[in-house]
Q: What sequence folds into this?
DNA sequence: TAAATTTACGCAATCGATTCCGTTGCCTAT
DNA sequence: ATAGGCAACGGAATCGATTGCGTAAATTTA
């Protein structure tokens, strides 16, 4: 098989008797090139099958029109939607998207960071790995003026763009909702407390209990490692076997919440009447499980879009831009069947 | 804020009194550089904060150590796992991954194709958009000897690497399973027939009916547009209102299958006894819905890994390599509750 | 010991696009 | 008629890494 040679602006220049400078300018609609020359050159480029070489342009300009994404795992509904939002926004602006997943390992995060840096990305979007504490590997981006946007799982000791939801209020509202439904002993499935999202959700939970005169029982706060289905199942079983079991659960994610519902059903505990459950994320499984899972919805794709936009907008700015801008998005409590103890004036609309 | 200047191999050369050639060779472990020089240079590079510039290297070598991915949508469980598999394999080999989604639009597929080409990707992994029929936009990759791997949704009139599952056998087995459970009138939720996966699943369905002496009824074959939950709900309602409704459904995806289960339950039709259902993909919702959904499991991450490997392995080969190599992976029927009419010698293990 | 290798490196071109300085020709105002 | 201005384009350096070819010194071989 023969490999076709590439068509460059030099080929175009030779063919059309123009200089490479003019070809380049014409293709970029430079104002000092006449309309008809531009038209002529573009048509010839099209016809000869010319395609720009991003590597060459990137080298010259020292940037690549590429947004780097560094997340824990792609195959989580939230993350997939996040990437989707980034990709959509980036592509509309003519940017590409490089992805990498840390699998929640600190080491991988570092090496991926380097790999993305080596590709001279225009900007970086990060959702921290579970293990990450030290933020040194991100410093080189700041030093080089590469806009870095932390999203969802963000650091609290590092000055950079951030896009988050109001986890505290979400945790508070979710817990409050259970209280309003008549729950008196509400357990909390908590995630690793060094990650902002889990810490704040828990704070919201605690304050909701306090402000509504409910006691805080350490036994009812379960610290998860992975918040997996299996872990949730095990924990729920234990909780429900207590002499004085909880009558409500606020889980920091949907996976564990769903496992709680299914475990309760298996054990003959009625959801929501004996155990009301509310989760977090509004994953697809939330509307499928029965009783359907009440949860907190998370504007994942929107967060991705905003993160990408931060990077795109950063280019036009001067370097005194305030990098510490934080975007906080609202969440929404989605009330479904798993928390609906009171059958009040709620229209009986389908859960989906 | 001051922007730090980058450290290049020229800076290293000046600092260490070597030529840039030697620096470059040392960093690449070239054999003509002595061990101690390599060690010296590498340590200095580390200390001075040198980071290679992929754009420069890529321009020189005319490739970027990047795998391009072109899929319909990222936020589908199958696609997310596919990407995850690609990313993992690519990264281990020191490759980056560029993603793009077509949102099932032919036009987007073309422009994304160009964008990826312009970045001089080393190889391309594609799962075709729903609309794609003409394959012209992929020709430039072939012409340039860029390995292109079609995965899952593949063309049948284009000569290139392919990684697929045996959709025919899967469709056959799924249908056969329903027959073995005693179903006599099995409906099929079919996808767009110009996409191989849906066409073959349907063929498998038809042959299973034929070979087991069941009549084929066109009324029971529903051609979906999007295979969404809503579409599945509507279709199921219609089916179950027939004077002679089906007693089984083989759906070409899980989303529609789950909607069928939920719709049946709402209408008071017992699943599996009055209506057995089997889906396709083994999405997370499959094990959550109740009764849990029997389905065909799809090795998504593995398919991604294999696709990436095709590209990585292609480099070492000469250009007479057979590009038409096709990898066919097996599938597995996951029997859960939605299809289990007969309570036979199956251990009553939990659905998950 | 002279010749033949081998080791360890340097020179300079190269990849393709961009851009800072020009330069040329033509039009306009005085 | 001539200076001034502008439109339209060209020359050549530049971005950073790679590599074929060349060479001096060190080592081995005859």
A:
């Amino acid at each position: 098989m023969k490999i076709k040679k590439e068509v460059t602006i030099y080929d175009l220049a030779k063919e059309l008797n123009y200089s490479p400078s003019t070809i380049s300018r014409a293709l970029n609609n430079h104002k000092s090139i006449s309309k008809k020359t531009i038209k002529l050159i573009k048509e010839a480029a099209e016809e000869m099958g010319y395609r720009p070489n991003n590597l060459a342009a990137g080298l010259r300009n020292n940037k690549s029109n590429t947004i780097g994404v560094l997340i824990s795992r792609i195959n989580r509904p939230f993350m997939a939607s996040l990437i989707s939002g980034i990709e959509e926004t980036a592509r509309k602006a003519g940017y590409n998207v490089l992805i990498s997943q840390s699998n929640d390992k600190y080491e991988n995060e570092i090496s991926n960071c380097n790999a993305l840096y080596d590709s001279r990305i225009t900007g970086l979007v990060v959702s921290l790995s579970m293990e990450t504490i030290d933020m040194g590997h991100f410093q080189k981006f700041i030093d080089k003026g590469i806009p870095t946007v932390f999203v969802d799982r963000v650091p609290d000791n590092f000055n950079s763009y951030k896009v988050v939801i109001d986890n505290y209020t979400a945790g508070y509202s979710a817990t409050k909702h259970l209280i309003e439904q008549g729950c008196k002993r509400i357990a909390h499935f908590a995630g690793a407390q060094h990650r902002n999202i889990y810490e704040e959700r828990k704070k919201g939970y605690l304050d909701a209990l306090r402000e509504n005169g409910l006691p805080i029982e350490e036994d009812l706060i379960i610290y998860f490692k992975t918040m997996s289905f299996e872990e949730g199942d095990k924990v729920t079983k234990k909780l429900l076997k207590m002499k004085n079991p909880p009558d409500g659960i606020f889980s920091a994610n949907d996976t564990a919440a769903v496992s709680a519902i299914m475990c309760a059903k298996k054990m003959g505990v009625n959801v929501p009447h004996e155990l009301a459950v509310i989760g977090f994320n509004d994953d697809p499984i939330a509307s499928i499980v029965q009783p359907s899972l009440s949860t907190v919805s998370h504007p994942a794709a929107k967060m991705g879009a905003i993160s990408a936009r931060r990077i795109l907008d950063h280019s036009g700015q001067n370097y005194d831009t305030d990098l510490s801008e934080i975007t906080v998005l609202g969440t929404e409590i989605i009330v479904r069947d798993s928390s609906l103890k009171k059958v009040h004036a709620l229209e009986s609309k389908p859960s989906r």
